[in-house]
Amino acid sequence: MMIETISKQGTAQWNEDALVVNDRLRLFGVLDGATSLHPYRGAGGETGGYLASRTIKNYLESLREEDVADASLKHLVIQANVRLREDMKEAGIDLTDKASLWTSSLALIRVREHSIDYVQAGDCMIAAKYEDGTVRTISRDQVDHIDQQSKKIWQDGIQSGITSREQLWSMVKPVIMQNKSKMNTLEGYSVLSGEPEAAELLEYGTINRIRLRSLLLVTDGLFLPKEAGAEASDDCANLVAMVEKQTLASYTDWLTRLEQDDKECQKYPRFKISDDKTGIWIQF
Questions:
Q1: Cβ proximity of 190 and 198 under 8 Å
Q2: pLDDT per residue over 69-98, tens digit each?
Q3: How is residue 160 annotated by DSSP?
Q4: What is the pTM of this model?
Q5: What are phi and psi of 62, to 5 degrees?
Q6: Is 16 helix (H, G, I), strand (E, B) or coil?
Q7: pLDDT of amino acid 232
Q8: 222 class by beta-carbon count within 10 Å (0-12 exposed, 13-18 middle, 19+ buried)
Q9: What pLDDT is stored for residue 135 in this prediction?
Q10: CB–CB of 33/49 below 8 Å?
């Protein structure tokens, strides 16, 4: 098994993404923390999103075989969510206020002899490639329907003649704040937030390893860029092809250069010049 990993900070102050690598349990994952809308800073100035992803990472990487026994991967993620809740409570966070919660998306796998267990929340994605070249998207971007609303406002702003990313952001921010209230509800999306409801909305399962060649796990900062008005396509298959051709590190560098050439986020509508980028490419 060959593993390539990347975790690259975007244009924000903190890299709120994190990698999970627990070789003892053959446990691998990516995390995408999100800063609370009511700002919080840790003792070292850390954002809530950074603290969320690191809390979950540290818990999952600390696990040993004797700690998990026959526990399912879903159970381990639920326990990580409980740990996140405990850390927020200790920090004095109002756990009844969704806008104050530290949150993180997640894509996590455990490699077994004949199968792959997985758990997913939010917009971190998992794709599998097989010996015949078929690419199978294992996860679903649960935030996409929320993002589409915000991106439409962004694109409408561009079409009206706005060329400043800051002005576009000021138009979109109220909608993003409103959508925060929908996390871990049937109208919104799943995310690790310390809320007990997250346990009921995790997506999880097992795939077998028959003719499985590789697995790709990514945070949304590594998604292929889309031009405004572009038609839907098989993004995961295209992303896997790009990574396989270039390596994960080279693809990340290429994407970062593309974003830097579009600093006002006009050609490729998005909310940050460069988001944090974290991925794991596993070849069997």
A1: yes
A2: 889 999 999 999 999 999 999 999 999 999
A3: T
A4: 0.92
A5: -80, -15
A6: coil
A7: 58
A8: buried
A9: 97
A10: yes
CA distances from 44 to 35, 57, 178, 206, 265 (A): 15, 18, 29, 39, 31
Query: Reduced to 3 states, what is the DSSP secondary structure of residue 182?
Result: helix
Dist CA 142 CA 204 (whole Å): 13
Taking the C-alpha atoms of residue 208 and residue 117, their distance in angstroms, rounded to an integer, is 9
Ranges in the chain, pLDDT < 50: none
Tell me how far apart the alpha carbons of residues 256 and 261 are, in angstroms, rounded to a whole number: 9
In whole angstroms, give the CA distance from residue 64 to residue 196: 25
Residues 6 or more apart whose CB falls under 8 angstroms from that of 209 comprise: 112, 113, 114, 115, 116, 284
Contact 56, 84 (CB under 8 A): yes
Positions of E strands within the chain: 2-8, 17-22, 27-34, 103-111, 115-121, 125-130, 135-137, 203-208, 212-218, 277-283
Residue 36: both structure tokens together: 């609370």
Distances (CA, A) of 15 to 9, 19, 276, 278: 5, 11, 6, 10
